[in-house]
Specification:
The structure holds two protein chains of two kinds.
Chain A (H helix, E strand, L loop, with lengths): L25 H21 L9 H18 L4 H20 L1 H13 L1 H6 L7 H28 L7 H28 L3 H17 L12 H9 L1 H14 L4 H28 L2
Helix pairs in contact in A: 1-6, 2-3, 3-6, 3-7, 3-8, 3-10, 4-7, 4-8, 6-7, 7-10, 7-11, 10-11
Chain B lengths: L2 E12 L2 E12 L3 E5 L6 H8 L7 E6 L2 E2 L4 H7 E4 L11 H11 L4 H14 L15 H13 L5 E5 L7 H16 L3 E6 L2 H7 L2 E6 L2 E6 L1 H8 L2 E7 L5 H11 L5 E2 L5 E5 L3 H12 L4 E7 L3 H9 L11
Classes of the chains: A mainly alpha, B alpha/beta.
Chain lengths: 278, 317
């Protein structure tokens, strides 16, 4: 198309230097983070295939694990295994669901959108917080799919709705803390593919080396030591207790401790990586 | 004299590569500074430092009086940046891209919408306003990117090779935008690989090569140094090259250079050279397939200033 940029319709108000404003206040930062979260949500809605990891993948995992392993593991009862497995798969799903966040951040860097944000007078933390806020919706979808499809397959809570809500809240809270790991990797890695590779390396030992899929008492001692130290075990055990019964308090407290720890380590790391990324 | 952009002794190394080996840049308020250099000269690195995206290893820079290292947020409130690669969000529409920037610059939703509409209209993108930027052509993306950098009405605008890869008509249109910005009071720093572009737009030109400033002058002064325009002649019969050389020697005092494909060129001053050359060629009965008067290419500028050809292919951008 032919263009003429010299149209005389330019507003005369244009391009006078703007007055210098007061820099960061909390309210302003929150508003900016919401604007950027909206951006991420628009992007997600435009490319719904970005939601496969929190929609179809949980369904396929539930089907595969219950019907492939269920008979062998659950002492013959697929239903018993489903009751055990669902909180475990939810824990793994939350860890896996975080990968997209790091990949998207890495793609923003590659495409130069990241430079645009960094050259704006907004707080350094805002683009990161905005991305995490938008990711909350994905984790919410993940929980709904797991519980909804699990119900269809026969999963039933043995506790009460309040405990179930608490389990979901714990899952979402953990997700919002764990995803900073992915964000940090996304800021450090050289390509979106590398983000996925690094996160898989991290998530497979964390999710399989835990109580997510089978009880840990048949594992060798060294592996049991690992599962006890593993935050996914604590998260999964806490959710299991809240959904189908069992010990709760200690696991919830240790999970909360992990959440604080993850934030304390990976938020500063991500911010530093964001500032330094050239 | 007030400088909107002032940089002294900027040094930046990436591993073993020295991208900037100590460069000084200065642009007066309301002027256009052209930074001319080949790929890998350090133009983009310099712009990224001035726009607070990169920290220099040594040296200092002030933008509108604010220190880029100590007051980066104040610098960011003053500048607009358009990179070499269009940095719009491809999954957002034109309007959504600009409204988002407006909101991040603390405009109200209504003001951000209005500003977005103004800019889309200015950049002839109104028809594509509600289309996802992914569907835009390269030129449209460039324009949207430039529009995005102007949402906050920045006093100082950095344009990193704004016309690289654009066809000539779109290049002219982009030049009009730059002129418009200056008319409205902005200071512009423009990087380019084309002397023609720097000549058309800049009040002053800084020529950089391998991270160093090798010349700084007004376009007129620079052209005086490199010999103003060049006259290039290509005789139809290559056997007449020697005769053409004699004619060019007579027309200009500068040395005649042999170009590619049987051409000869010489730096000329004044308007008479062309007419004199035509007359002499006619008198000697030499027919030509090419006879042109043009500004020296970047390569020729470098040759004149440094005595050697720029080896732009050897260096990465």
């Amino acid at each position: 198309m032919t263009t003429t940029l010299s149209k005389p319709t330019v507003p005369t108000s244009a391009l006078v230097p703007q007055p210098v404003q007061q820099t960061s206040s909390l309210r302003r930062n929150i508003r900016h983070a919401i604007v950027l979260a909206q951006r991420n949500l628009i992007k997600t809605m435009r490319t719904p295939e970005q939601l496969i990891d929190v929609t179809l993948q949980p369904v396929i995992f539930l089907l595969l694990f219950v019907y492939v392993f269920g008979g062998a593991i659950g002492g013959g009862s697929r239903h018993d295994y489903l009751q055990y497995l669902l909180p475990g798969l939810l824990g793994q799903g939350i860890a896996m669901g975080s990968i997209a966040l790091g990949q998207n951040m890495n793609a923003d860097i590659e495409k130069g959108v990241f430079d645009r944000f960094r050259a704006l007078p907004i707080a350094r933390s805002v683009p990161l917080v905005g991305a995490v806020l938008a990711d909350f919706i994905r984790y919410l979808i993940l929980c709904v799919i797991f519980l909804g499809f699990g119900y269809v397959m026969g999963f039933r809570i043995d506790t009460n709705p309040v405990a179930l809500m608490a389990a979901v809240a714990l899952a979402l809270g953990f997700a919002l803390c764990f995803c900073w790991v992915s964000l940090w990797v996304g800021l450090k890695a050289r390509s979106p593919g590398a983000v996925q590779g690094v996160m898989f390396l991290l998530i497979f030992p964390l999710s399989f080396g835990s109580s997510a899929f089978v009880a840990t008492d048949t594992m060798p001692g060294w592996l049991q030591a690992w599962t006890k130290a593993n935050p996914i075990t604590r998260l999964v055990d806490a959710m299991r207790g809240l959904m189908v019964g069992g010990p709760v308090t200690e696991n919830v407290l240790i999970t909360l401790g992990w959440m604080v720890g993850l934030l304390a380590v990976f938020v500063p790391l991500a911010l530093r990586a964001y500032k330094r990324r050239a | 004299m007030t400088y909107a952009i002032q940089a002294e002794g900027l040094v930046k190394r990436f591993g073993d590569t020295t991208a900037l080996a100590g460069i000084d840049l200065a642009a007066r308020e309301g002027s256009v500074l052209g930074v001319l250099g080949p790929n890998g000269a350090g133009k983009t690195t310099a712009v990224r430092i001035l726009a607070t995206l990169l920290q220099p290893d040594a040296g200092s820079a002030r933008i509108a009086g604010y220190d880029v290292l100590r007051q980066p947020q104040l610098v960011r409130q003053t500048i607009g940046l358009t990179g070499q690669f269009a940095s719009v969000d491809e999954d957002l529409t034109g309007t959504q891209n600009l409204v988002m920037i407006g909101r991040l610059l603390d405009l109200s939703v209504a003001d951000a919408r209005q500003r977005a509409a103004e800019l889309l209209d200015w950049f002839d993108l109104s028809d594509a306003a509600d289309r996802v930027a992914k569907t835009y052509s390269g030129g449209m993306r460039r324009r949207l990117d430039l529009a995005a950098s102007l949402v906050g009405r920045p006093a100082i605008v950095f344009l990193d090779e704004p016309t690289t890869g654009l066809d000539p008509a779109k290049r002219e249109a982009m030049w009009d935008v730059v002129r418009r910005l200056v008319t409205d009071g902005s200071t512009v720093l423009l990087t380019t690989q084309y002397l023609e572009e720097a000549d058309a737009l800049a009040d002053e030109i800084t020529v950089i090569d391998r991270g160093r400033v090798i010349a700084h002058d007004t376009p007129l002064g620079l052209k005086r140094t490199v010999g103003g325009q060049r006259l290039t002649v290509r005789p139809t019969d290559p056997a007449r090259l020697a005769d053409v050389r004699t004619i060019l020697d007579a027309v200009s005092e500068k040395p005649v250079e042999t170009g590619s494909r049987d051409t000869l060129s010489v730096a000329v001053t004044g308007d008479d050279a062309m007419a004199a050359t035509v007359a002499r060629l006619h008198a000697a009965n030499i027919s030509v397939t090419e006879l042109s008067l043009h500004l020296p290419s970047l390569d020729e500028v470098f040759f004149t200033i440094t005595g050697q050809r720029s080896d732009e292919d050897e260096e990465a951008a």
